[in-house]
């Protein structure tokens, strides 16, 4: 397909009350820029963020909305000033498509925290153009937010890494996961199944899987866990008190996060990093829960392009895998319902069928 034949069509939600009802619409992409890359989409991962957005859990979205920010395909057009990509290249887009490029955050490989950044969907460009996501035939994005994809990784498997994988990889690296460290992953799902693998790939001495359910133990151990801990055991915090350097919490439901107990398991100045963003407020927390061991409680937002490139390289070298279930894109409604109802092991990927 030539760039002149590229059609921008997507599966859109028109009402948050009918958040699992998708209709195909034509849409206008952002105005072409000299640094823009057009990608013909082949697969798009389904993220919990998609569900939070289309249900209105994170606030009223821009309707109609085409979700999706784990986008992979091939380049069909490049702007006159694009240097990193050429037509025919494999390429992907994660959860961000633009930043200001001028602020301190952008200049220090923290562009995901740019206060003028543009998300892949449910966002507007500075000129008012609406950004639409990857449940569609094509996407246009600035080349800095387009990722080169290693040939060793099948497109459908690399797609979920562009958000879910990056969301856990970045805080693992930035918070010191590696040789000699004890790392715990809370929640063994779409994010957690990547976190276990990347923690081991980074060389952590121990990787503990924390889960409320016993039925994922076999999966967790195969994915790299050295220990499996049930958080509904009231004594788990006592058993692990003061033994963990870093916790990555991927649990997406606030009342399922045993936050105070998790903090007890940290070593002095250990860190608990929250990477999911539940609709509800976090559990109540007394200040003493942080003061007793100098615990640090923090958050993280996706990752930079530098992080993403190094993540994909590590995935190739250490054989990190996406565990996926592929559906045709016309079944997007089924996919988002399965995510909402926690029925996916461990990521849905949609194959373009428009």
Describe the structure.
Helix 4 (164-174) packs across helix 5. The chain is 23% helix and 26% strand. The strands form five sheets. Strands 3, 4, 5, 10, 11, 18 and 19 form a seven-stranded mixed β-sheet that branches. Strands 14-13-12-15-16-17 form a six-stranded parallel β-sheet. A two-stranded antiparallel sheet has the order 1-2. It is an alpha/beta fold and 354 residues long. Strand 18 (324-328), helix 11 and strand 19 form a beta-alpha-beta unit. It has two domains: 9-163 and 303-351, Quinone Oxidoreductase, Chain A, domain 1 (Alpha-Beta Complex), CATH 3.90.180.10; 165-299, NAD(P)-binding Rossmann-like Domain (Rossmann fold), CATH 3.40.50. It is globular and about 60 Å long.
Radius of gyration: 20 Å
The end-to-end distance, rounded to whole angstroms, is 14 Å
Morphology: globular
| Text of the CATH class of the largest domain | Alpha Beta
**Strand-pairing-aware structural class:** alpha/beta
Stretches where pLDDT falls below 50 for ≥5 residues?
Answer: none
Examine the secondary-structure arrangement and name the CATH architecture of the largest domain.
Alpha-Beta Complex
Instruction: Report the count of strand segments.
Output: 19
In a nutshell, what does this entry contain?
The chain is of the alpha/beta class.
What descriptors fit this protein?
single chain, 354 residues, alpha/beta, Quinone Oxidoreductase, Chain A, domain 1, Rossmann fold, seven-stranded mixed β-sheet, six-stranded parallel β-sheet, 11 helices, metal-binding, CAD-like, ADH-like_C
């Amino acid at each position: 397909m030539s760039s002149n034949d590229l059609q921008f069509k997507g599966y859109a939600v028109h009402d948050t009350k009918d958040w699992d009802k998708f209709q195909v619409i034509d849409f206008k992409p952002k105005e072409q820029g000299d640094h823009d890359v057009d990608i013909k989409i082949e697969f798009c991962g389904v993220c919990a963020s998609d569900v939070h957005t289309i249900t209105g859990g994170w606030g009223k979205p821009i309707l109609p909305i085409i979700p999706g920010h784990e986008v992979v395909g091939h380049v069909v057009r490049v702007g006159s000033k694009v240097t990193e990509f050429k037509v025919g290249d494999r390429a992907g887009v994660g959860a961000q498509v633009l930043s200001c490029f001028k602020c301190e955050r952008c200049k220090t490989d923290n562009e995901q925290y740019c206060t003028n950044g543009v998300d892949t969907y449910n966002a507007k460009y500075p000129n008012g153009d609406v950004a639409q996501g990857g449940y569609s035939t094509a996407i246009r994005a600035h080349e800095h937010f387009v990722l080169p994809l290693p040939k060793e990784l099948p497109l459908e498997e690399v797609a979920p890494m562009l958000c879910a994988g990056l969301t856990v990889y970045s805080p693992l690296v930035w918070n010191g996961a590696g040789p000699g460290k004890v790392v715990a992953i809370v929640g063994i799902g779409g994010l957690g199944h990547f976190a276990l693998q990347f923690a081991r790939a980074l060389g952590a001495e121990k990787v503990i899987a924390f889960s409320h359910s016993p039925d994922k133990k076999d999966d967790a151990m195969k994915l790299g866990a050295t220990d499996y801990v049930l958080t509904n055991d009231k004594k788990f915090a006592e058993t692990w008190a003061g033994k963990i350097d870093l916790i990555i919490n991927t649990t997406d439901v606030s009342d399922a996060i045993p936050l105070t107990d998790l903090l007890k398991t940290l070593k002095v100045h250990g860190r608990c990093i929250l990477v999911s963003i539940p609709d509800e407020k976090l559990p109540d927390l007394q200040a003493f829960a942080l003061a007793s061991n100098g615990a640090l409680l923090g958050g993280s937002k996706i990752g930079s392009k530098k992080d993403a490139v190094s993540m994909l390289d590590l995935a190739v070298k250490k054989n990190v895998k996406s565990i996926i279930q592929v559906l045709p894109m016309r079944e997007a409604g089924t996919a988002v319902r399965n995510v909402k109802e926690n029925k996916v092991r461990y990521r849905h990927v949609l194959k373009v069928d428009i």
